[in-house]
Each structure stands twice: as structure tokens, then as C-alpha cells.
Amino acid sequence: MTHNEKRLYLIKELLSELPQYRNMEIPNNTEEQKRLLRSLMNIRAPRPIGNEFLKVQDEYLSAEVAEKGITDSAALPVSLVNSRLVLWRGDITTLKVDAIVNAANSALRGCFVPCHSCVDNVIHSVSGIQLRLACDQLMTEQGYDEPTGKAKITPAFNLPCHYVLHTVGPIVHGQLTQQHCRQLADCYRSCLELAANHGLKSIAFCCISTGEFHFPQKKAAEIAVQTVTKFLQTDTQIEKVIFNVFKQEDYDIYRAILHT
User: Fold this and answer.
1) What crossing angle do the helices spanning 248-258 and 217-232 adopt, rounded to 10°?
2) 21-76 confidence digits (pLDDT tens)
3) For a disulfide at 127, which of 50, 87, 131, 178, Cβ 3.0-4.6 Å?
4) H helices of the chain, where?
5) DSSP annotation of 78
6) Distance CA 150, CA 169 (A)
7) pTM of the model
8) How far apart are CA 190 and CA 57, in angstroms?
9) Contact 169, 129 (CB under 8 A)
């Protein structure tokens, strides 16, 4: 199968699981097909699927990742403040690193809104449906929603990193409180502890809670840098922590804190 044929195969297989969409006309436009495939992956409930589908999906997603380009975290310039800290603006799903951090919701099974712009949706879309299955297994065994400030680890599947750390940040409605700040610090600390306990040497954080969860960006960045810096003072396992940002505003905030 060509790359385009693989995409069509995946779309048809996912549509066949949905009786109401089995006769849906597939668009001819490549970008529309990609959007449809991502949407179908996003809405799919965590249930088993055949090995042939997974084989084709993995080949397709790996090629998509390669086409976007992979950034090696080892080549990123370090901060002037701390040689173990890095500030990088880019797509976290293209980063070659031991682990990336996903800002998850308390259900921890990914975002089910088709093509939503949140990092949770993007990470699951690039990783493949195995990530939702792995998260579902963890949460089914746990038996309750993931508490704010805690973290879980899964394989990264088709991402260029090795693992994904899933953490649930605080949701800010109205005034920011000390509890919100403690919970956000807990997110960074939990991820770092989990990474260190699994022998990981590099980890990339997204901007936890600053998007859909409305945590003020500047305060969030200050907490992130303070918590990570304090952890690294006593930990020798982790060699590099990357603060990954997507927006220019966040980049400027972190740049001022890290003096890069």
C-alpha cells in the first residue's frame, strides 16, 4: 500500500465500526482525509482492534511524524541559568526525548472532541489509538479518576519520544488560589519523580493548565521553573528538562525567567 492507500484503509476501517457512517463519502482532498482520520481516531472508544489495522496505522503515523521532521532534544541549547534546563518553542509531538508530558483530563483517556487543538488531543492523534487503550487499562485498574497533581506513565507508541507522562493540572475558575498553585507544582513534581523512578534522563513539559484550564501563564511558568529547579538540586538521574511552549507569549515569559 502507498501512503495514501494506507490513509484510506484506516478511514474505511474506522467508519465500518460506526453503522451510521458506513456509507459516508470519503473526501478526495488529502488534508480533508487527514482531518477525517484524526476525527475518527479522536471519537473512538477504547476497545480492541485488529493487528492488521495497528500495523498499517503504525506505518502511516510513523511516516507522518518523519515528514513533519524530528527535533533531537540533545541538540537544543541549554539555559544560562541552569545547564540542565532548556527552553524550546515547537510541536512537542516532534521531539526526540525520553518522555513528553501530556496535560490530561481526569478521565486520562484523551480528548474525544474531533480535531481539538489541546495538547491532549494532539498527542493522542500522533501516538495512535494504542495510547488510549493503554490509558484505559490504567484507569480501569485504578477504578477512579486521576487526582489533580498526580501522574501516570505509558509507552509513546508512534511518537518519537519513548514515553508519555500524563498529569492532570488544576482548573482555574475565577480567582487563582494557593491550592491551585500547590496542585500545579505537584504536577511537575509527580512527573519528575515518575521519570526518575523509571530511569529516564530527559523530559519535556508542555505548559500544564494554561490552556483550557485557564491557569495564568506567567504564574504557571514561575511555578514550573521553581519546582523543576528545586527537584534537580537533589536529583542526579534526570539530565535535561525541556520547557516546551507553542505560543510566542509563553516563549517570552519563560525566556525572561531563564535569561536565555
Assistant:
1) 40
2) 878 899 999 999 999 999 999 999 999 999 999 999 999 999 999 999 999 998 88
3) 131
4) 3-16, 30-43, 51-68, 119-127, 129-142, 178-197, 217-232, 248-258
5) B
6) 8
7) 0.95
8) 32
9) no
